[in-house]
Amino acid sequence: MACKFKIMKFFLLKRILLVVFVLWPVFSLAANDYTFDLSEIEKKPYSIGGFLEIRPVLSGLNRDSAFYRLKYFNQDPESVLDEYNMGLRLEGSYEKGKAGVHFRTDTVLRYDDQGWSDDIGVLEGYLSLKPTTGFSLNAGKRVVPWGKGYAFNPVAFVSRPKDPNDPTEALEGFYMIDVDFIKSYEGPLKTLAFTPVFLPVTNDINDDFGEADHINFAAKLYLLLWDTDLDFMVFTGDSRTTRYGLDFSRNILTNFEIHGEAAWVNDFQKKSIDSQGKLTMETADVLQALLGIRYLTANDITYIIEYYHNGGGIEVDDAENFYKFIESAYNRYLANGDSSQLARASMLSRGTLASAKPMRDYLYFRASIKEPFDILYLTPAITLIVNLNDQSISLTPELAYTPITNLELRLRSAFLIGAQRTEFGEKQNDWRTELRVRYFF
Questions:
Q1: Does the structure show a pLDDT above 50 at 30?
Q2: Considering the domain boundaries, does residue 2 fall inside one?
Q3: By the number of CB atoms within 10 A of the CB, which of 71, 115, 317, 322 ranks highest?
Q4: What distance in Å separates the CA atoms of residue 417 and residue 433, rounded to the nearest whole number?
Q5: Residue among 426, 411, 353, 416 at smallest CA distance from 386
Q6: What contacts 358, CB < 8 A, 6 or more positions away?
Q7: What is the DSSP string of 23-57?
């Protein structure tokens, strides 16, 4: 086993060094001397930028896991899979007077064990109007960043959920119309803002948001009161059930911040699963909440700690029943070649344990240090996500390095640790390592 692990590490290192060696001459061209031109600092009506990305990935498969059996029950893949991603992101804007147009697109070409695939998508694309100070209107595909949480946002009623494993990555927006009214004051209340949002859902527009042929309404009231950020939110419509939310953020000290969110969701469809794979639904009002801190030490270490409660999540017994059902379905396939139960389990997983952080309680911890040992432009970090219900863990160390202007290298590995019939113990992979190379322009 130790010999096998050493071979895998050598294989990984060789791949990474090959990518860096091939790309380094290309990106080094960006290190030429910069010449100062006064015209470059003049404000232009347009801006355009983005990045090119190359991201090779290695994944170590967990052959005894439930999700491995769901995907590879009739295959025999290598124990280590490689994947290659090449991407181009473009983003820009054009502003003329009181109007502006903004866009962000993603183009990705991928090669993995399933072959070649590509994806071209618009993350954002909208028109903005600012006729007066304190008033703006936006229409189009937008990301509305509601919530104060770093890894989780239970009050993000009109946004897609973040990936807790990479929460700073850009999200895809929804088509909407939103308006901002902002007013400043003297006294304890410094700022008041009101943001109504209209979000339509049809078979062609926002079709993955919820039930079609409805126009939904959401609103947020923001207060900067006694140096505390406060938000109150509401969502109502027939595409999703009614929900209410609030969040807050306050700096206790200049280097210590506390934040929290709470969302009350009406008529939520709570799911439960028995050992035979039968799914039952119960309508109930549920609470989703988050409490976190961010702390910066004197030696530039940033700590982020968050507790997330998902009141609509799967119970431990339901998760164990789901994994037992997969074991039974897999044994049935081995005995007589019948994969119908596995297909049923695969469909069942999509609305339950295949979603991001599907269970009740999670602890998120991240620590990053800027330029340790005076190594310029280097930022090591470690991220820990703990499922508090079954004690399984996701551990992700990483290194980010910017050797020259506009070039970013990030090496990160994720290790999934957990017993049988736990969330991270039953994932498809045991570990995953990736090198992300981005050149910004």
A1: no
A2: no
A3: 322
A4: 15
A5: 416
A6: 310, 313, 314, 352, 423
A7: HHHHHHGGGSPP---GGGGS--SEEEEEEEEEEEE
Residue 416 lies in a domain: yes
Structural domains of the chain, count: 1
Q: What is the rounded CA–CA span in Å between residue 254 and residue 296?
A: 9
Contact 299, 357 (CB under 8 A): no
1 belongs to a structural domain: no
Overall pTM surpassing 0.90 (yes/no):
no
How confident is the model at residue 41, as a pLDDT?
58
- The rounded radius of gyration (Å) of the Cα atoms in the chain is 24
Q: Which residues contact 292 (CB under 8 A, 6 or more apart)?
A: 148, 149, 150, 258, 259, 260, 304, 305, 306, 307, 364
Give the list of residues 6+ apart from residue 200 with CB closer than 8 angstroms, or none: 175, 176, 206, 214, 215, 216
Q: HSE (CB half, 13 Å, CA atoms) of 142?
A: 22
Q: Is residue 189 part of a domain?
A: yes
- d(C-alpha 197, C-alpha 178), whole Å: 4
**CA angle 166–424–399, rounded 5-degree value:** 35
Name all contacts of 425-429 with Cβ < 8 Å and 24+ positions apart: 425/65, 425/392, 426/62, 426/65, 426/66, 426/67, 426/323, 427/62, 427/65, 427/67, 428/59, 428/61, 428/62, 428/65, 428/67, 428/68, 428/71, 429/59, 429/60, 429/61, 429/62
User: Average pLDDT of the chain?
Assistant: 90
Whole-angstrom Cα distance, residue 401 to residue 396? 16
The 8-class DSSP code of residue 404 comes to S
Give the tokens for residue 209.
Answer: 């948001």
Confidence of residue 10 (pLDDT cuts 50, 70, 90): very low
Which residue range forms the structural domain that includes residue 194?
A: 57-440
Which of 112, 134, 109, 195 has the alpha carbon at shortest distance from 159? 195
Instruction: Give the mean pLDDT of 366-377.
Output: 94
For residue 114, the domain's CATH number is: 2.40.160
- Residue 21 backbone phi and psi in degrees, to 5: -65, -40
331 C-beta neighbours (distance < 10 Å), count: 12
With CA atoms as reference, report the closest residue to 123 among 164, 165, 87. 87
Cβ burial 215-237 (10 Å sphere, 16+ → b, else e): ebebbbebbbbeeebbbebebeb
